[in-house]
Specification:
Strand order of the largest sheet: 1-2
Strand content: 5-15%
Oligomer: single chain
Largest sheet: 2 strands, parallel
Number of helices: 7
Length: about 160
């Protein structure tokens, strides 16, 4: 999980220390088992789900919330649950259960406000449906250019709206 490792490196480089759990006093030494930092919530879509990815994220100190499959439009959401998953549950079953809890639903729902609008704006407003170039380096450059122009447009529109 290169992006997860890069996230931790960026937090460390910025001097951001992960908070301790709420029930642990701030003066508790860091090497105490109870004083381990809070896990970082990570919400990913179903394309990233695998047993290995869940385990890798957990080992790095993340709290993964990864969709286990696509939900078809106009189908009811699975019912919310408060009980614990069965002991014999697979990683996929435990993740699906986690996403049905009140906390899991709230965490995963944040994607609608953080990530998804940007992709929707790029696809719908800007008409971006596919990359025009081929090759990883070329596609990366094209994506960076699209993100740059997207952000510049946001800045310009916000200034224009204030005038």
């Amino acid at each position: 999980m290169p992006l997860a490792k890069a996230t931790l490196q960026n937090l460390a480089a910025a001097g951001i220390v992960l908070p301790k759990p709420d029930d642990v006093p701030d003066d508790t030494p860091d090497d105490t088992p109870d004083a381990q930092p809070k896990k970082i919530p990570a919400t990913l879509d179903s394309g990233y789900f695998s047993d290995e990815n869940v385990q890798a994220l957990e080992n790095l100190g993340f709290d993964p919330h990864i969709a286990t499959g696509r939900q078809k439009h106009n189908t009811p959401s699975p019912s919310e649950t408060d009980d614990a998953p069965p002991e014999s549950a697979t990683v996929k079953e435990r993740m699906a259960h986690k996403l049905r809890t009140k906390e899991g639903r709230a965490c995963y729902a944040k994607r609608k406000h953080i990530v998804e609008p940007v992709f929707g704006q790029m696809k719908h407003v800007r008409g971006f449906r596919q990359f025009l170039l081929r090759g990883l380096e070329n596609v990366a450059g094209e994506w960076k250019l699209l993100c740059l122009t997207h952000n510049l447009l946001k800045i310009w529109r916000s200034k224009y709206a204030l005038s």
